[in-house]
Design brief:
Number of helices: 4
Strand content: over 45%
Radius of gyration: 22 Å
Largest sheet: 16 strands, antiparallel, barrel
Oligomer: single chain
Length: about 425
Amino acid sequence: MLAAALVFSLPEDVMAAANDTISSENQQVKKSKLLLGGYGEAVYTRNFYSDNMFRYSHADRYKDAKGHGRIDLPHVVINVGYDFGHGWTMYSEIEFEHGGNEVAVEIEAEETGEFEHEIERGGEVALEQFWIQKSFSKALNIRMGHIIVPVGQTNNAHLPTDFFTAYRPEGEFTILPCTWHETGISIWGRAGKWRYEAMVVPALNSNMFTNANWVKNGSASGYEFRVANNLAGAVRIDNYSIKNLHIGVSGYIGNTFNNDIVTNESDKYKNVKGTVFIGTAEFDYRADGFIVRGNFDYGHLNDADIISAYNKNNNHQSFSPYPRTLVGEEAVAVGGEVAYDILHGKQRAGGRRLFVFGRYDYYDSYIPYASAITMYDWTERHIMTLGLNYYPIKQVVIKAEFAERFLKEQYNNEPMFSLGVAYSGFFVK
């Protein structure tokens, strides 16, 4: 084996997986030169509602639909890290998403029901992380390369062992890029019970904003590069002062209009910035077999009326990746979950755990600007989930859940059942 060296300084979710005895007060990993691991998920879902493209515009026609089933590989990831010594480390994460193909054909359900190509990011395999880091001390580290933007609870902790639902929590996953990764520079560190991180990354692209997902797809690029006409800033602060409790806040700001290879320099748009503000707050409490988590996310888009009109009327090329829908001025996501390990306090070979959990999410991806004529009431949703997570060993989890999405009265509710298996761990560390 390679000789021990400096401690890796990894993202919160990676640190949690790498250390079997991690605690909220001492999040460190074992010393190693080489780090090799990964995580993966496989999920079967039976949806007891119609997936017809007109299920919202003509809801009465699909009230008694038989539903449909699907099998998915949401994420399969390989992690490789290395400590070069003298404070220099590298880390990479190669992701195969939904089986490894990132260019998909979907039926666009919000408008006319057309078939469209969904370009999430150019190429068949995503490089979700690749960075070089120089560590001067625990309080000062500089990370450069392709990095996670830890805005929101899920982006900060996105391993399948970090959440109880079969898929990532729906509210944040709907309105924010998730997992959000950009190429930029980050400064982060720890001081006592505090952790901070500040970064500069490319801004989002307002051409990709939609009514169904707000700014989520704004980090996508169908090109061989990421357009960076505009830069953005993100910041995160975490506190571990109270025993068993983690509290975190994060924020993002960036101008998103004309952040594409095709720009409009006419006087009509000279003052349009499309500034996106995002603010989030979260907590995670663990004690006596209980895990309680909660999150709140709020986002605001300046010039939402102008960007909506521009996207609908100016992005007219049929071959472009632009979705050409309206976008809300605001979006919100609130979520919370409670879980209890019914094997807590018992003799458990291999670290077995069995969590019973319940989760509630409320989110709205389209809160319109004041002058908006078109409303999309189906974007406001409540979802309740009940389920089990069984850990036969610490690195493997089997998930089963029943969830129901509650929409406004004129629409049909959307119940579903999911069964999944996932792992997260390191083979060399």
